[in-house]
From TrEMBL:
The active site is at S21. GO terms for molecular function: DNA binding; DNA strand exchange activity. GO terms for biological process: DNA integration. Residues 13-161 form the Resolvase/invertase-type recombinase catalytic domain. It comes from Paenibacillus larvae. Residues 169-306 form the Recombinase domain. The keyword Coiled coil applies. PANTHER family: DNA RECOMBINASE-RELATED (PTHR30461:SF23), DNA-INVERTASE FROM LAMBDOID PROPHAGE (PTHR30461). Keywords: Coiled coil, DNA integration, DNA recombination, DNA-binding. This is Recombinase family protein. It comes from the Bacteria. Pfam families: Recombinase (PF07508), Resolvase (PF00239), Zn_ribbon_recom (PF13408). Residues 435-469 form a coiled coil.
């Protein structure tokens, strides 16, 4: 709790928590100012500092437990190491009222005492708790007002064309006045090229070379041209965007650069904001002509349409096959007249490998026939799976009866709680118990009633869920009988696709190389079934949830 007296803090040790964000730094507040103030404060009051907890550059809008030093402070308080904590003011705990109050609660529940060095009050009293709430709200108001002022200032600067932070687009650099200018500086290891010339090359390959984004990415990687993260040595710095880069050109990145209107001289400020704010269009130096930029958009769109048109074959296992090497999906494609499933990692530069996947292509007819045969075998010979389901249902019936009995008991107990509450009030009216006793008893009854209501909701969910499970056995036999009739005839693709989607959860393929052999390799196919079930309506299977199936595994040689 907060203390208005330093006597509680006199003793062997105290801890100091300090925090400053980038917004605070713009107000000329620094972590060093808080450290200096706390040091002098402790010297004046003869307090010994046990440990410093410093969150430098951390916003006050995130919970204390999500801050590096804040999380350590809570952990030490929980372990009894941190018992007395000094802060400069309430804003250090949070800039949002909810965050501040949660931080105080989190520390106090572990027995830690907190004191503001500039705001003397005590939260052990109602008045002190009220002041705490007011100060927390004031801190949030101060932050919102400051942000609004900053946004207005940023919009004014944006209208003038200044670059206001964030990663500068590839091909540009920011000058001393804060404006973008074309970056013609030589690239490291590629002195004959600059970022601007890379952008020109990229658009040339798209417009004049008619190359796809995949081909452009492959070409840039083959040339060894460094992307911005590698060039600026940002790949190892902290931050989600920076940690996930592989230091290579990706097709998606190339596509985004082709679509970026900045390269034709128009940048829109504020479009990435998740807040409802004004979008400001301003002019910047153009690297690409307006005509070339629009031609690139037409070609990019044409490539996308052409990719859809090239789907000459329907793929039964579309979206179901995953690569055992990189974890990405396989997609269907045709090499000349032969259809194959190809791993997306061979072109996406994604997944844990952060590069091109070395997996082999899988012949579509072979893997589709393999999986379809397994589906047909299960439909005709489900084996012990249905028997196991029946056994499960018998156990479910036993549990359901117990749940119903418990539900009746809970409902009776809830009625008794209302009677108990009325009895307490009658005793108080007769002046047989004090107001304090009434408050204690009513609080206990309220808490007990809440626990019973929570349990009643849980029981209702369990009973309803088991009621659905009880119906499964009959559904399984009916569905399998219907499917056996359906698969006797030659099925259209849509029907087979519906059955496969209902039966197969995913298929994991591992391809293995053989030394000295160029084209013949082995593939292990691991099909995971989750029998989502099928209702046969007018001869067409319709998926419905039923029960999980076992795993299947098969290894055979494949080509390509």
């Amino acid at each position: 709790m907060f203390s208005n007296s330093l006597e509680d803090f006199f003793g062997p040790e105290v801890d100091i928590y300090a925090r400053v964000s980038s917004e605070d730094q713009q107000e000329r507040e620094t972590i060093e100012n808080q450290i200096e103030y706390a040091t002098k404060y402790c010297e004046l009051n003869k307090l010994t500092i046990r440990e410093w907890y410093l969150d430098d550059g951390i916003t006050g809008t995130i919970p204390l437990r999500d801050r590096p030093a804040g999380a350590k402070l809570i952990k030490d308080a929980q372990e009894g190491k941190s018992k007395k904590i000094l802060i400069f003011n309430m804003k250090r705990l949070g800039r949002v009222a909810r965050v501040t109050l949660d931080a105080v609660y989190e520390l106090e529940k572990h027995g830690a005492k907190i004191k503001s060095m500039t705001e003397p009050f005590d939260t052990s009293t109602p008045a002190g708790r009220f002041i705490l709430t007011v100060l927390a709200g004031q801190a949030e108001l101060d932050r919102d007002t400051m942000l609004e002022t900053m946004w207005h200032g940023a919009n004014r600067a944006a209208r003038k064309g200044k670059w206001l932070g964030g990663i500068v687009p590839y091909g540009y650099k920011k000058n001393h006045d804060g404006f973008l200018e074309i970056n013609c500086d030589p690239l490291p290891g590629k002195e004959d090229m600059s970022e601007a010339s890379v952008i020109e090359l990229l658009y040339h390959l798209c417009v004049n070379g008619k190359m796809s984004t995949i081909q452009i990415a492959d070409y840039l990687n083959a040339l060894g041209i460094p992307p911005s993260y590698v060039k600026d040595n940002r790949s190892i710095k902290r931050g989600r965007r920076k940690e996930k880069t592989a230091g290579v050109w990706r097709p998606a990145r190339v596509g985004n650069m082709i679509k970026n209107s900045t390269y034709r001289g128009i940048h829109v400020y504020g479009k990435r904001s998740n807040k409802d704010r004004e979008l400001i269009e301003r002019k910047v130096p153009a690297i690409i002509s307006e005509e070339m930029w629009h031609q690139a958009q037409i070609i990019l769109k044409a490539n996308q349409i052409e990719a859809v048109k090239n789907t000459k074959r329907q793929y039964l296992l579309r979206g179901l096959i995953k690569c055992g090497c990189c974890g990405l999906n396989y997609h269907g494609t045709a090499y000349r007249s032969s259809p194959f499933y190809v791993c997306n990692g061979k072109t996406a530069y994604a997944g844990p490998l952060m590069g091109k996947c070395k997996s082999r292509n899988i012949p579509a007819p072979w893997v589709e026939n393999l999986v379809w045969e397994q589906c047909v075998n299960f439909i005709n010979n489900p084996g012990d799976t249905v028997k196991e389901l029946v056994n499960v249902d018998e156990k479910v019936l036993d549990h359901t009866a117990a749940y119903i009995d418990e539900k009746e008991l809970v409902q009776k107990s809830l009625l008794n709680k209302d009677d108990e509450r009325q009895s307490i009030l009658e005793l108080y009216r007769k002046k047989m118990i004090s107001s304090n006793d009434v408050e204690i008893q009513l609080t206990e009854i309220t808490n007990e009633k809440k626990e019973l209501e929570d349990r009643l909701r849980e029981l209702n969910i369990l009973i309803e869920g088991n009621a659905r499970k009880e119906k499964r056995t009959d559904d399984v036999f009916q569905i399998l009988d219907g499917l056996r009739e359906v698969i006797k005839e030659e099925l259209p693709f849509e029907t087979k696709r519906a059955i496969v989607k209902a039966l197969v959860k995913k298929i994991i393929v591992h391809t293995h190389f053989e030394d000295g052999v160029k084209r013949f390799h082995n593939a292990s196919v691991h099909a995971e079934f989750s029998f989502d079930g099928i209702k046969v309506i007018n001869g067409t299977p319709v998926p419905v949830v039923i029960f999980p199936l076992s795993m299947k595994h098969k290894a055979v040689p494949v080509l390509h």
